[in-house]
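Margin note from the TA: students keep mixing up input and output lines. Inputs are the sequences; the output is the structure of the whole complex. Example:
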Amino acid sequence: MKVIRSVELMQAEMMKVRQKEVGFVPTMGFFHNGHTSLMDEAKKENDIVVTSIFVNPLQFGPNEDFDEYPRDEEHDIKKAEEHGVDILFVPDVKSMYPQKMSVIMKSESRVNILCGRSRPGHFDGVITVLTKLFNIIQPTKVYFGMKDAQQLAVVDVLVKDYNFPIQVIGLPTVREDDKLAKSSRNVYLSPAEKEKSVWLYNALMIGQQLVVDGEKNPVTIIDEVRTVLSEKTGAMIDYVELLNYPNLQPVTEIKEQIILAVAVQFNQARLIDNFILDHEGNIVTRL
Amino acid sequence: MKVIRSVELMQAEMMKVRQKEVGFVPTMGFFHNGHTSLMDEAKKENDIVVTSIFVNPLQFGPNEDFDEYPRDEEHDIKKAEEHGVDILFVPDVKSMYPQKMSVIMKSESRVNILCGRSRPGHFDGVITVLTKLFNIIQPTKVYFGMKDAQQLAVVDVLVKDYNFPIQVIGLPTVREDDKLAKSSRNVYLSPAEKEKSVWLYNALMIGQQLVVDGEKNPVTIIDEVRTVLSEKTGAMIDYVELLNYPNLQPVTEIKEQIILAVAVQFNQARLIDNFILDHEGNIVTRL
């Protein structure tokens, strides 16, 4: 595996393989099975797998955890190697942002709901860094976990709006044995919080069951999920939302692909989770 | 020569030739020697030359001449063929903008001066359509005329900020026999205006001569150029500016590469012209 740290070298490297199928897994590192499942799938579907590790300052708000975001490069390099990554791109902040950006990108749809509401500017930072990474790597396919479903929806618009020659693929959220969604931020949880955090998944399951049972009214489902979450976690609920997907518009009746999504603030960790469901309540396994 | 009108087909076509050197000449059509000189140079320096014709509504203000902008596709196809263009991309507005753009791009530097001042949003439209075209065509080199020097400066930032794997090349303004800069908008000039319009070039020449003679004070040069323009054209002067280039910042002393630029409003045509000079007053012939 090659590890490349320079934007210029990375771009030059990718020019050599332009004719091939390149699967790209952009990450912020601190790899868990969620990341490696994306690498595995990319490996199956492409000639070359490229993974990037870059904790992107632009997508962190001033009071967020950019400095504290967990990092373990040595572990990540080992993991990437094990999962067949061909090229690992690990630029530093200065090489990605050598000067203040003069041309800014802003997403005006799919962002003023869910995580976008409590993280203003977050998705603008995401699309900015992804546009840069797409131009540097020039992948044919890019892989995201469905846990970051809103990110996936925003990237979907970015790629369509600007004609990136890239297929955007969403793969299922990978979970711990107790069903807590894998997240680099799970290390922030206290043991007691960790135990309660399983209720994000359980609450979503209860919501899903209502859809399966034929409940068409989103309000009923949202109320039920919120009640369960609140009683079982005792944590501050950031949101419980049911929207169509990927447009992320509120619906009055469940009759298309939807996302049921929750975000909960524990002491040091803000956790998110979601199910993407068809109108009958079946879990969608690839986007 | 292939003529392709669909974004999807164009992108598929370009995927086939990703390994080659692709020179791209983006235009709004109505070809004159300014355009064909770019095609000729692209032909010399690349395996494949792609030209696009797209009158981009996003870069026209509400009171500007989008509807009246001169078009002659038959003539353009003939010209492109004559000048060795391999692929001519002629999308319609609906295929370039199938839905309202959700992700918007804004340039925050190099735009609030020169033409940007009287054409708010113009350069945002330019970088938006160019980002789309770059992703569709995936060129290795892109060619612009120096007449649109501010556009060239803005594109230079766009490409650097977002790591497009593209070399941006600026080539000299092509002129009529009487030295009026070639422009599709010259057709709007009355015969009397056409005669006076030569004074854009003459005034720039006078400014250049001052630099050659050792004048270091931009104000002296600007005043002289403005006086000549005003007396000889009788038209409304939009601006006379002397800035460093490509940063487009005002300078207090001429000691680096500069642009001396003018814009004049005739009855139906707004004309622009400029010289890009080194600090000794020599004309720069390639950017």
